[in-house]
Amino acid sequence: MRFFNILIMSEQENKIYDFLIIGAGCAGASAGMYASRLNLKTAMIAEMPGGLITSTHLVENWPGIKSISGPDLAVSLVDHATSFGAELINSKVTEVLPASPDAEGDKKSGYIVKTMSGEYKAKSVLFATGTEHKKLGSPGEKEFENRGVSYCALCDGAFYKGKTVSVVGGGDSAAKEALFLSQHAAKVYIFVRKDILRAEPVNADRIAKNDKIEIKYNTEIAEVLGSDKVEKVRLKSGEEMQMDGVFVAIGHNALSEVAEKLGVELNDRKEIKINRKTETNLPGVFAAGDVSDTEFKQAITGSAEAVTAAYYASEYVGNNEVVF
Ligand code: NDP
Question: Hey, which residues are catalytic here?
Answer without folding.
Answer: 152, 155-156
